[in-house]
Amino acid sequence: MSLAAAAATVAHTTTTAASATTTTADTHGFLSPTGVEIAFLLVGLVTLGAAIVTVTTRQLVHAALWLVVTLGGLAVEYLLLTAEFIAWVQVLIYVGSVVVLLLFGLMLTRAPIGRSPDADSGNRWAALTVAVASAAALVWVVVDAFRATWIDLDGAAAGSTEVTGKALFQNWVLPFEALSVLLLAALVGAIVLSRKAKTNAADTATGGKADADKERAR
Amino acid sequence: MHLAYPAVLSALLFCTGLYGVLARRNAILVLMSVELMLNAVNLNLVAFDVWLSKAAEETLHSGQALTLFTIAIAAAEIGIGLAIVLAVHRNRGTADIDKLRDTAEGHETDGHDTGSPDSEAPAAQKAEATA
Amino acid sequence: MTTTTLAVLVPLLPFLGAAAGLLLGRTAPGFVRPLAVLPTLTAFALAVLVAVRHGGGRAIDATTELTPTGSVPIDLALHIDGFAALVAVLVGLVATCVQIYSTGYLRDDPRYPSYAALVSLFTSAMLLVVYSGDLMVLLVGWEIMGICSYFLVGHYWETPEARAASIKAFLVTKLGDVPFLIGLFALAVDAGSFRITTVLGAVASGGLDHPTLIALLLLAGVAGKSAQFPLHTWLPDAMAGPTPVSALIHAATMVAAGVYFIARLLPVFAASSAALLVMAVMAAVTMVGSGLAALAQDDIKRVLAYSTIGQLGYMTGALAVGDRGAAVFHLLSHGAFKALLFLAAGVIIHAAGTNSLAAMSRMKGLRDRVPDAYWTMTVALLALAAIPPFSGFFTKEAVLGAAEHVATGHAAGIPGSAGWIVLVSGLLTALLTAAYAMRLWLLAFHGRGAEAPDHGKQPLAMNAVLWLLAVPSLAFGLLTGPLPDWFDGRDLTPTLTTAVLSTGVALVGGLVTYGAWKHTTALAARVPLGAVAAHPEGDAAQVEAEAIASHAPAYGDVAAAPDPADPGRLLLGPLHRHAAVGFHLDAVYTTLFVRPVQAGASLVRFLDREVVDTYVHGAGAVPRLLGAAVRRAQTGNVQTYVSALLAGTVVLAVAVVLAATGA
């Protein structure tokens, strides 16, 4: 289809080397996968399965645990794509903190332990239709566009800590700093949101009363 | 490795997350599904960054940098999201998305029916939520 | 000051008085009476001064153009000839008398300030009509008079009679004013100007293309304003207004405006013999019909109203035979004695506590209660019946003499048939006039039965005015000699034939009525009848309002009473029933105009409610159904919204991809 040609044209216009990769991809058919590909495929199947269980299970805590499996599987995929730094960040932040946070949230909202019959809303069938349709559309487009594209994983790792660090602190240092401000804002926002409004009102009330008392004493 | 593998996996994960966002009732599960979608995007970013850094000798590593930013923003998002869910739960006594129907047509007449199944959602709390 | 300045001040002063009265009426009640009387009095004095300076000489013309108005110019113009000067004096005299009289008559009326201001405004408008030398400016005064009449007739708006009468007066006169306006435009287009002098010049040189059409259109407006057949029906009903208003507007001045207008533009009418003939027939029908109707009325003011219509018929008749001198001569004397009659009637109504002649004929000694009204009214009735040497005799003789002059073929350009019509009907009306004047006098002042109630003396302001007006009623005939200089120069002295004839028939009418009264008056004692006002101690206006409101409930009709002692019933015989209701003209109008209009209105209402609204409701139903459907989608569930959003996105994305790949 012409989408492949379009993608190839993009590659052509980027550099001349793109055509070289395209030609190399031609030598690697889907029916003769490399070892890395087999590993990627297997881990991907596990990841996808875990993700599906995450969004379908009726036990809320199990969903969080299956999410751990999904995120961990994704970390393995990053490793297979030679993006080491991203992989470890994924493990640290997602598996280490986000999931713990989610579990805290489940706990604080008194989520039921065990099977809850109403974990899915009545919107389920519409959601399934939309999801399947968009999956079909996305997969069709992506496969159509990139079926002949080959990633050359040989040579130096594309995402080693050194490479990522250089890129981050040479080219991306300003957004990085801006990000810190964003995190601070999120921190403050989360505290303000989760603080109990009642105690706040009570504090001001007593403060006002104290002021009034002072006024009277004077 | 064929680029199609991570790309297809990313698309499928994304749609799985999409299904979760649309179908899950508990707000925290919705947040998990959002995380799935974000991760699908991250996988896409990393895969294309690796491809381009080799094929086009792109040295900025913008894909990976963006992935890191996304992870950081996702962390912030999950924090804020959970705070909101907790606030809602505290005021309404529920974290179920399909019970938060204040914008429904004719909400005032049957608004109390869509309130929490818990009997501990008094009107005072509701008033506080709207205040 | 020049005469022109004086003449400008004449209409201006009452206008300023009216404006001041309306502005200060509520805040400064103490100024209301001076503001009502003084400007009118000054205007009267100035009008006299203008008349003296004019002295019957050449017409005074002054003009100023405010702004260019295109091909047909409209000027602020004065045109004061002998007619204008004398009519202005009459208007000033009657208006002054009425304003003074009203201070007593509406002594305790809470709406006196607005009443006095409207009377002043009316006076101003009438003087404007009299002095104006431009037809457009004249029309302005003409219409202001109409609206003032509407307000003043409805002064007792608490009573349904007054409300209905004011609306009727307004609508009927407007019915005439529409053709009148068109006629003015046609006249101005033919003559090229609204200036009266220019128009008359154009007529003299034969410049009018459609004289008959113009004359008939103008005649419609005159018939409305001057209460001529067939547009006279508003005038008897207008008696539901206060008596001073009836005296000023509906007897002496406004109704005379139509006659005065024709007198001014008589050459236009004389240019068409058909119009003159129509006028003669109109005048004849009006005269005779109103005389018969007046004989059958029970309300004293309605008798006088029909009498007014008849006397205006005389004036129209004089104009129909081309003698405007006689018409205005009669206008002047009639204005004086009819105002006197009305004002005296107001005094009588106050004293008797009723406006019904049937009730008065059962009261003994009413004349001793109101001696001033008795004597002045006797004088005025004699003038009305044209008994020499009272003023009415001379003026009516002038009219009849002019008619005889034409009938015998001494006038060129005027059809002799018009002369005969006017002469015969005039003599017949003289008989009827004497009859109803006699009846009125006998019933009001020679009643038998219970003693009339004593409500004390009438206010001085009211009685003094009566004597003031009695002077011209008595002595106006003395002016017969010098007046022709002011008019067209035609002799106004009575001729022997008509004088003997008309005085004879008048005497016959009076004597026959007296005989009939002698015959029927014995019945009065047997049939008790009558109702008097609930608050006889109140001021005259309140008594009158109560009398008007109680007439229909007490006697079964607003105009007539079932009184077997009424000489008019004996005289008219089977005609009485029809004459009492004005020969069913109102019923005819109801059938011809009111019912169709009401039917049309209900048809339109039906079409609007049932047909148009059905489409509107139908058009509304579809969007309402759509809205209900869309409203069901507003579940408030965010997930549903996002699902729909993403589904749409997928569809769009697929569509875009398909389009991009050319599939």
From TrEMBL, chain A:
Entries under InterPro entries matching the protein: NADH_UbQ/plastoQ_OxRdtase_su6, Nuo/plastoQ_OxRdtase_6_NuoJ
Name of this protein: NADH-quinone oxidoreductase subunit J
Biological function: NDH-1 shuttles electrons from NADH, via FMN and iron-sulfur (Fe-S) centers, to quinones in the respiratory chain. Couples the redox reaction to proton translocation (for every two electrons transferred, four hydrogen ions are translocated across the cytoplasmic membrane), and thus conserves the redox energy in a proton gradient.
Listed EC numbers: 7.1.1.-
Broad class of enzyme this protein falls into: translocase
Cellular component GO terms held in the UniProt record: plasma membrane
Membrane topology: Multi-pass membrane protein
Reactions catalysed, as given in the entry: a quinone + NADH + 5 H(+)(in) = a quinol + NAD(+) + 4 H(+)(out)
Protein species of origin: Streptomyces spongiae
Keyword Zinc attached: no
First-listed, main subcellular location of the protein, grouped into a coarse class: membrane
UniProt signal peptide: 1-20
Keywords, sorted A to Z: Cell membrane, Membrane, NAD, Quinone, Signal, Transmembrane, Transmembrane helix
TrEMBL record, chain B:
Top-level division of the source organism's lineage: Bacteria
Positions with biased composition (Low complexity): 121-131
Catalytic activity: a quinone + NADH + 5 H(+)(in) = a quinol + NAD(+) + 4 H(+)(out)
Bias (Basic and acidic residues): 97-115
Transmembrane spans: 66-88
GO-annotated molecular function: NADH dehydrogenase (quinone) (non-electrogenic) activity; quinone binding
Major place of residence: membrane
InterPro entries assigned to the protein according to its UniProt record, in alphabetical order: NADH_UbQ_OxRdtase_chain4L/K (IPR001133), NUOK/Mnh_C1-like (IPR039428)
Gene Ontology annotations of biological process type: ATP synthesis coupled electron transport
Protein topology in the membrane: Multi-pass membrane protein
Keyword field: Cell membrane, Membrane, NAD, Oxidoreductase, Quinone, Translocase, Transmembrane, Transmembrane helix, Transport
Record localization: Cell membrane; Membrane
UniProt-listed Enzyme Commission number(s): 7.1.1.-
Region annotation Disordered: where it falls in the sequence: 97-131
Pfam families from the UniProt entry: Oxidored_q2 (PF00420)
GO cellular component, one term: plasma membrane
Similarity annotation: Belongs to the complex I subunit 4L family.
Function as written in the Swiss-Prot or TrEMBL entry: NDH-1 shuttles electrons from NADH, via FMN and iron-sulfur (Fe-S) centers, to quinones in the respiratory chain. The immediate electron acceptor for the enzyme in this species is believed to be a menaquinone. Couples the redox reaction to proton translocation (for every two electrons transferred, four hydrogen ions are translocated across the cytoplasmic membrane), and thus conserves the redox energy in a proton gradient.
Assembly behavior: NDH-1 is composed of 14 different subunits. Subunits NuoA, H, J, K, L, M, N constitute the membrane sector of the complex.
Name of the featured protein: NADH-quinone oxidoreductase subunit K
Species, as recorded: Streptomyces spongiae
From TrEMBL, chain C:
Intracellular or extracellular location(s): Endomembrane system; Membrane
All copies of domain NADH-Ubiquinone oxidoreductase (complex I) chain 5 N-terminal, residue ranges: 68-115
Domain NADH:quinone oxidoreductase/Mrp antiporter transmembrane as annotated: residue spans: 132-406
Keywords of this entry: Membrane, Oxidoreductase, Transmembrane, Transmembrane helix
EC nos: 1.6.5.-
GO biological process, any: electron transport coupled proton transport
Source species, domain of life: Bacteria
EC top class named in words: oxidoreductase
GO molecular function per UniProt: NADH dehydrogenase (ubiquinone) activity; NADH dehydrogenase activity
TM ranges: 6-24, 36-56, 76-100, 112-131, 137-157, 169-189, 201-224, 245-263, 269-296, 303-321, 327-352, 373-394, 414-438, 459-479, 499-517, 641-660
One Pfam family matching this protein: Proton_antipo_M
Membrane topology: Multi-pass membrane protein
Main location: membrane
GO CC aspect terms: endomembrane system; membrane
Protein name according to UniProt: NADH-quinone oxidoreductase subunit L
Organism (species): Streptomyces spongiae
